[in-house]
Amino acid sequence: MDIVNRKMIVGLAVCVLLTGCERGTKRIEPGDQIVKHVQTDVQRPEFEAFAADVLIERVEALRDREFGRRPMFVAESVSRLTVGRPDVDDANSDDINRAVREDRAAIFTGLMGRASVDKPDLDGALATFAHYDAAEGKLTYANGHADRETLRLAIVLALVRGLNAEYFGAVSGAQSWDEALALEASALGDAMFVAAQIALAQADQPIDAGEMARFPEVALRNAAVRGVFDGVSGTGDGEEAKIAQAERGFAAREGYALAAAMYRVNGWSAVEMMKHAPPRSSAYVVRPDRWFSGDDLGTWRWPAELETGWDVELWHPAVRSGRVGPAVIAMWLGQTIDPAAARSVYGGW
Fold first, then answer.
1. Would you give the DSSP letter of residue 314?
2. φ and ψ at 14, to 5 degrees?
3. Does residue 133 contact residue 140 with C-beta atoms inside 8 Å?
4. Among 57, 96, 201, 203, which has the highest number of CB atoms less than 10 A from its own CB?
5. What does the alpha-carbon distance between residue 317 and residue 258 come to, in Å, rounded to a whole number?
């Protein structure tokens, strides 16, 4: 860790000590049933339907930052909208992406008994609803999408992430699956924090940032937010699809909880500390108290029974030593027990 990052973390730790940050983050556990609000009368351009200028101003006010240039909204048909968003908040090279894919494949093979060559699917269908190109200042969105509530949420998420990219630039890329999950959670958390406030206000349930930080569970009142917390924005069936859903849910839910915890500490100043020196382990995402205090990462010792018959060549040294992090462990346990119960491992990490 360089001197600048060390100073920033020390400063944040002092801030935490002065304000009394709680142990860990408040758990946000969506219910199993997702209620979808679908409207089909959205054939006109959503730029008009969403009052884009008002939405941009609302995002700027809630995020306490302003765009250097006004974002340009571009409507695109759902069928033609590019799948995936530009990397507005990370600097992953092909080599780094390969490292994450290989690490994910190794762990996935050991835990699930089958190989996976995919990289983490952290955006799911939300990236096909809206994405922001920071270089061009252009937000492309799916015109005419039936689920307006989820579309608005995706637009707000894209705007906040683009705003962050404008001010804070790229974050150096992840080298492991766990690190990729942690970086995505820290990047998405404040966007979810803003998006949840806008979603509740749209439903005539307004709440200010301070109240939301103290009671983050109020975000669960909104169906679209609950859906994102549950990671249901993807497609597909089977074990790998369930893991992908859990990945998306972790980034959104735990990132939001972390952003709320940071906001309780010292408002946006504390939240923005993560843009300079984000947590690089899922353990630090779910246990920010350990991150602030500089505690070393814990390790997971695999039960000896599970290692019988495993091909050690499939496992990276980091995996064999147990540095997979609580996010992955909870995903694994969540395949056989209730996912919310599986997430109880966070508190004891």
1. G
2. -60, -45
3. yes
4. 96
5. 29
